Known about the structure:
Number of strands: 11
Helix content: 40-55%
Shape: globular
Strand content: 5-15%
Number of domains: 1
Largest sheet: 4 strands, mixed
Number of helices: 16
Low-confidence stretches: 173-177
Radius of gyration: 23 Å
CATH class: Mainly Alpha
Bound molecules: protoporphyrin IX containing FE
Amino acid sequence: KYKNLPPSPPALPIFGHLYLLKTAPHRVLESLSKKYGPIMYLHFGHRPVLIVSSPSIAQQCFSKNDIIFANRPESHATKILGYNNTTLGFSPYGAHWKSPHRLITIQVFSSASLLHSTGIRAEETRLLVKRLLQGSNQTAWRKVNLNSFLFQLVYDVVMVMVAGKRGWVGFRGMEKKLVNLHQRRDSFLQGLVNEARDNIGRFRSSSSVEENKTFVQELLRVQEAEPEYYTDEILKGLILQMFTAGIHTTALAMEWVMSLLLNHPHELEKARNEIDNNITHGKLLKDSDLPKLPFLRCIINETLRLYPVGPLLVPHSSSKDCKVEGFDIPRGTTLLVNAWEIHRDRKLWEEPEIFKPDRFKDIEGVFYGFRFIPFGMGRRACPGSGMAMRLMGLALGTLIQCFEWEREGHGLVDLEEVCGLTLSKAKKLEALYRPCPSMMNLLSQV
Length: 446
Ligand code: HEM
């Protein structure tokens, strides 16, 4: 039936092309695409997989064919960990995705909601500064594992937005037994729902609950209106999504930014000058200052270009037969877009291997012509991108504003990657820091 499939390397019986993916998939797929072109058709076991690595072909998938590719492939893991594929990121396209997507977009990620959560980001960033200051005297350099500090920052921001409190850290690391992991998460999430339910019952008439509603309280309100659809299972899936999709990605991206800045002290200095010249002296950076710091934004973009934390985005799946680049693409094909390769393509970027934040000064547009896609594209693109960019801008800007940073030892920070679903640093970032002398007055009051 499908006569005109995209090019494909030789496959093994049963395993298909899985044998090719021994090391980092984004790199293996890049070397294959050099030989077979920017659209390839592989088989991972029995699963047909379309690999795309050019902006124009990605655009065909996410504009003309966006609805067709708006599904997610199902797997045993997504079923167990994703409340039977009812979480936003795992759920197939349709009513089960649309309704929670609308809810989360309005309640968490709309401009009004982001404005509402400004105070949470500010307070947690202030606490990060305070933690870094603990025990430091004015002049001595101290060593810090930035990975864990950044992770804790994002975790606390999400936790306070979701449940109004900081707390349990249990989402980190890969655990082998999926079912056990699910049970642990489930009781944690059910605990959050029950606690919020008790509080609403207790304080139903209290105006403070109304004014400072957390995400869980908002979900309970929606559950009251539509109890058949918004069961506790659906609610837990939505809460879980905030933790799983938002924390690791944002913390990792910030770790890459700091690693690159430590290896490029000149760019770090430029970022500090931008902050010194645009932010009122003696005041901590605020969310609302970020538009005054375009170079800081260029640094974050340039880091996401070189190290997109989702190098192959998140897999999509086609719900119907369709045509891409003139080829037949059968229904049920998994789609992987190699954002990492597109971001480093010599035809699209000058000296793509080099960290040059200034290149983003001259580039306009949301996806920069589909050649810059760290948050994906189309209707399944990351709904948290606005919040992530704000939090990264605020936290990184504050770290640069308040502290001086140096590499540990004489060599460069090791940028070796490990790639699972996300692109992490093989060696967690450790750096030296000390308070900026010009900020001592302010820091003594933090
Ligand atoms: C630097 C930070 C982040 C990066 C690079 C990132 C990247 C991505 C990517 C590449 C996707 C998949 C897009 C696709 O399927 O084509 C995605 C999906 C998603 N992200 Fe993010 N993300 C980040 C932060 C966040 C945050 C902070 C949240 C929420 C708190 C979040 C929530 C989600 C959700 C819910 C989805 C699934 C959307 C769907 O399937 O409809 N992300 N993200």
